[in-house]
Amino acid sequence: MIALGRAFGIPVRVDRSWFVVFALVASTLAFVYFPRALPTAPAVAHWAWGVGAAVLLFASLLAHELAHALVAERSGIRVESITLYLLGGVSQMVEEPPTPRAELLIAAAGPLTSVGLAGLAFGGRAIAGGPDWARVLFGYVGAANLVIAIFNLLPGYPLDGGRILRALLWAWRGSLGWATRVASAVGRICGLTLAGFGVANAVVGGELIGGLWLIMVGIFVYQSAHAAGRLGEIRERLALLEVEQIMSAPPTAAATVDAQSVGPHDSAWLAFRRLAGTGAGVVRVVEDGRVVGAVDREHLKKSLASRDGEEHVA
Fold this sequence. Notes:
With 314 residues, the chain is of the alpha+beta class. It folds into 3 domains: 152 residues, no CATH class; 65 residues; 71 residues, CBS domain Like, CATH 3.90.1280. The chain contains 9 helices and 6 strands; from the N terminus they run E-E-H-H-E-E-H-H-H-H-H-H-E-E-H. It has a 4-stranded mixed sheet. Helix 2 runs antiparallel to helix 3, helix 3 packs antiparallel against helix 5 and helix 5 runs antiparallel to helix 6. The radius of gyration is 23 Å and the shape is elongated.
C-alpha cells in the first residue's frame, strides 16, 4: 500500500494494482476516446487529456468513498482508512453499522455523490463556452460518474446496492447475519451474471475488450461477495466470544500498549479486526494499563475451528 495523505483526517492509500488500471484508463482514453472525439488534435494533446481525465475519474472514486466514510463517522463508526484498489475503492470501517438505517445511509451516500458529480459535469458541459476539448472532458467525467453510480447500485453485496439490500433485509428480519448471507449470495449471482455477459459479448458480439472488462468485473464482484459472506460468518462466531476466552499468555519480552490493543472483555471480533490492521500478527490485551495477554492468528483459527465443531455437534 502507498499512502497518499489524508482527507478530512482519514488516511488515503492506493494499492499497487491501482497504477495498472490508471495506466490502462489513461492509454485507452489517449488512443481511442479522445482521437474519436477530437480527431484533428495532436497526439500529445490526446495524451494530456487522457491523463487528466483518468485523474478526474479516480478523484471521483475517492469522492465516492469519502462520502461513505463521512456518513459512517456521523453514525459513530470509526473509519481507519480509504483504499483505492484495482477496480474501485473501499472505506475500512472498524465495526458494522449499528442499525439498518445507518447501513442504508452509509451505502446510499456513495452513489448519491457520484450522481451529484455527474450532474455537475453535465451542467458544466452544457454551459461551457470554451474549447471543444473542455466539453468532451466534461462529458466523459459525467458519463463515468453515472457508470460508477449505476454499477455500485447492482444488488450484490458488498457493492452499495448489495449493502442497501442488506439494510432492507436486516430491517425486515432483524438479523444482520441472515441479511449478510442472503446479500452475499445475491452478490455471487451478480458476479457470475456479469462474467457470463462478458463471455457472450466477446464471443458472440465480437467486442473482445469490452467483454474482457465485463469478465474481470464479474470475477471481482463474485470474489468480493464470497469474501464478504465469509467475513460475515466469522463476525457472527467471534462476536459471541470475549477476548479473554481466546487470548494466550502475555509476551515474554517487554510489551507496550499501543493503539491496536484490546481489553479482555472486548469482543473477539474486535481483536480480529485489529489483527487485520497490523503487520505484527499479534494484538496485545491490556487491562488497567498492563499487558495481560495476547491474541494471534493461530488462536483465532483455533477458536473458529472449535466453534465449527460445536455447531456441527449441535
